[in-house]
Design goal:
The chain is an alpha+beta fold. The chain has one domain: Gcn5-related N-acetyltransferase (GNAT) (Aminopeptidase, 3-Layer(aba) Sandwich). Helix content is about 30%, strand content about 25%. The protein has five helices and eight strands. It has helices spanning about 10-15, 40-45, 60-75, 115-130, 145-155, and strands at about 20, 25-30, 75-85, 85-95, 105-110, 135-140, 160, 165-170. Helix 2 crosses helix 3 (about 60-75). The two termini are about 25 Å apart.
């Protein structure tokens, strides 16, 4: 079973999922999250370091972390990046509650950062949001997340709002449909 926000768009979502080669030449599959992925997603976040890197997420406490993951997979549209049957990346977009300007988040296993995977996942999410008619995507990011900022800038995100330790970045979209 695949969690999709609208069954009528299921075909389009599945078409946007793909296989890529990362900067080291490894084959990575990026696709929609499936219920069967749950144990491997939990495992990715259990291995994830450093904990609490992005706005206090993922939680260092296992119970809080698992509750947070449960909430995200139930209320966001999720994609996973897979290498050798292990989930090494997770991206989520809040298009189920806010189609006009959804929140976006992405987390990559520390051994797979700076290899083009985050950029690829972000571009897939961008395409999905454009097909749904979203006007923009936004992320909350800490200023010390240099790799995250690099991925978002490369994907077209721009800083908005006041300068501080936590910032918001927005990606304006060209919607293909109206909400």
């Amino acid at each position: 079973m695949i969690y999709l926000p609208d069954k009528t768009n299921q075909h389009n979502f599945l078409k946007t999922c793909c296989s890529i080669k990362d900067k080291l030449g490894f084959d990575i599959t990026i696709r929609a999250y499936q219920v069967e992925d749950y144990p491997r997603l939990i495992d990715m976040y259990d291995r994830f370091e450093p904990k609490r890197i992005a706005m206090g997420l993922p939680h260092s406490d296992k119970k809080l972390r698992d509750n947070w993951i449960d909430s995200i997979v139930k209320s966001f549209f999720n994609t996973v990046a897979i290498y050798q049957n292990n989930i090494i990346g997770h991206a989520a977009i809040d298009i189920l509650r806010n189609k006009s300007s959804p929140e976006y988040m992405i987390f990559l296993d520390q051994d797979f950062r700076n290899r083009g995977i985050g950029t690829s996942q972000t571009m897939i999410i961008k395409k999905i949001c454009e097909e749904l008619g979203c006007k923009q995507i936004w992320v909350a990011i800490t200023c010390h997340s240099i790799l995250g900022i690099k991925v978002f800038k490369k994907s077209g995100f721009k800083f908005t709002g006041p300068i501080g330790p936590e910032r918001e970045m927005v990606l304006k979209l060209k919607p293909k449909s109206k909400i």
